[in-house]
Structure formats: structure tokens, C-alpha cells
Amino acid sequence: MEVLLVHGADQDSRNGQGNSPLILAASDKRTDSVELLLRYGARVKVVNNKGEAAIFHAAGRDMIDLLDRYGVDLNSFSNEGLTPLINHAWKRRLHSLEALLDHGVPVDQIRPSNQVLATEGETALFLCRSAQCVKLLIDRGAHIHHRDAAGRTALAHHVQGQRASPLKALLDSGASIDATDRRGRTALFTASEEQYVEFLIRRGACVNHQDEDGWTALMEFSSWGRADCVATAVKLGASVNHISWRDGNTALCVAQTSEVIDVLLSHGADIEQRNKQGCTPLLIATSRGDWQTMSAFRERGSKVDVVSYHGENALQLAKRNEHEYTAKILERDCPELRQSLGPYEIVHSYRMTFGCL
């Protein structure tokens, strides 16, 4: 390399990804090559197409010390809003992380909120992917209960990202397991795998915590169609007939798979429970055109001739919401539903006849 540099090779040339020789040398952990390039005038602040300078790829204290002596910006941001500290935390580079902190980089650097990139003001603790790095950041003063723009803590992020080691490290360091976001939701609401549901509840998460709408985590799992998560939550104390204060729905009302329905019914869920509109789970499924879930409720004994508080039966709800296929199934299998008219049909017929109300 030195021969090329002596004969005038461009030390800041770029490849297709925008990487300079300095960035590539840092990525390959070649401290001697990094030092050589710097001595021959390589610019330490050159960035690639991602907006990352060599410091984002520097592995270990020696290389970071070297780059710092040549004036690298230790607090720069990439195009994705990452800083070197956050990037090294994400890549599990403990020694690089420690070196940056020793050089005075703030431990709670905040990633800018950006709707396009779906970033919400996270710190390194949110994106850290190893227990050792989590412990280092906390030991250096990281705010364990910092909240992003949505009000979520690092704990909720790691539950959602299914990162077990950082999650356990946070809890062992005193993170609140029932910290809520701006919607009043705890980390349990973001658990999309059975093992995380069980882990959180056994570590003390409130299984029947309600968010601002009165929803519980069980209702969330039910709406996702996660029968395994539903079964685990119920086994560990979740209330199957909890009623949301805002809409009066239960977990069965928002269920969308036969597997979830079976789990809930086997644990005593009320198949005829009405919400604030007077709709049973069957009527709710019908109103959204979910003929498969509607059929699942019918097969399990739900009454098909019930009417909502507005006087509409299943067929009328299907027609009003323009779910033609669902309506055809009901007309074929339940012809008796065509015999009654609810308020919607009465008003509709009047308008069609007289052109006004």
C-alpha cells in the first residue's frame, strides 16, 4: 500500500459503496493500514454512501485512539441517525464502546426522530444487542428508563426485537417491567413470541394491565392471531372475559383465527358477550367481512339470529358494510335472516322509494 501512496495513489478514492481505503482498513481491523493512510493524508471525516466515517467501523481502543488523534468526529450521525456509539452498541463491540465512552462521548446520545426511517429517539441502550454492552452503558450512567418519542423504554424495544440477553440484563439492572408508553402499554403488549410472554409474566409483569383504551395484552395477542401467546397468558392468569372500557370488547371479540377462539372458549370465554354496540363476537366478525371467523363462531354454537343494539342482524351488518361474499354465505346458510329488517334497511328502503327521509 505504501508504494502506491508514494507514487500518488488517491488515498481518498471511493468504491461503489462510497467506502474509502481508510474506511475499508478500519472495517478489516487493520490498525497499521489505518495509521499509514492517515500519515499520507487520508481524510478522517470522509463518509460512505450511508454517511458513515471510519470511526463507525473502528474495532478496538487502539484504532479509536488513533482516529481521535487525527481529528475524527466522535459524535457524527450517519444517514440513518446512528452515532459511532450507537452503531458499536448495535454491533456488540464492547471494547470500541468502552473506548468511545472513555473519550467523553455522551452515553445517552439520542437518535433523531425520523418518520421515514421509523426512528423515534432511541439511545444506545435501545439498540444494544449484548448483555455485556448493556451493563457497560448502565455502569457509565445510561438512563435505564429513557423513553423514545412513542414513550417506550429500552426494555420494550428489546421485547419487541426479541433480544433475550439485553432484556435480561436490563431487568437485572432494575428496569421497570411495567413501564408504560404514551398509549399506556407495557412491554408485555409488544411480546409476539410465547417464550417472551411467559418470561415477562414470570418476572412480574402485570398480566391484566390495561392500556388507555382498556385493552389488555391478551386482547392484543388475540387480535394478532397468536394462539400460543393467548394460551400462555391465560395459563398465567390473564382474564379471558375482561371488557375494554372504551368499546366493550373482550379478547373473543377481536379474535380472528379459529385457534385463538378455541383457546379462549376452552378457558371460559363468553361467546355471546356483547360490546357497547350490542354486537357479539359473531356480529363483529361479520361487520368486518371476516367470513372465516364468522363461520368459526357459528360452528362453535354462537347464535346467528342475534341483533345489535341498533337492531341489525348479521346479514344486515354484512350488507351495510358492503361485504358481499359474507352476505351471500349468510343468505345461503341462514335464509331466516332475510325475513327481518333493521333500521338501516328501513331507512334505505324509504329513501329508495321516496328519494328523501
From TrEMBL:
Please give the SMART domains that the UniProt record associates with this protein: ANK
Origin, by domain of life? Answer: Eukaryota
Q: Supply the InterPro entries for this chain.
A: Ankyrin_rpt, Ankyrin_rpt-contain_sf
Source organism per UniProt: Septoria linicola
Q: Is Nucleotide-binding set as a keyword in this record?
A: no
UniProt keywords (A-Z) are: ANK repeat, Repeat
Q: What is this protein called?
A: Ankyrin repeat-containing domain superfamily
Q: Which regions are annotated as ANK repeats?
A: 17-49, 150-182
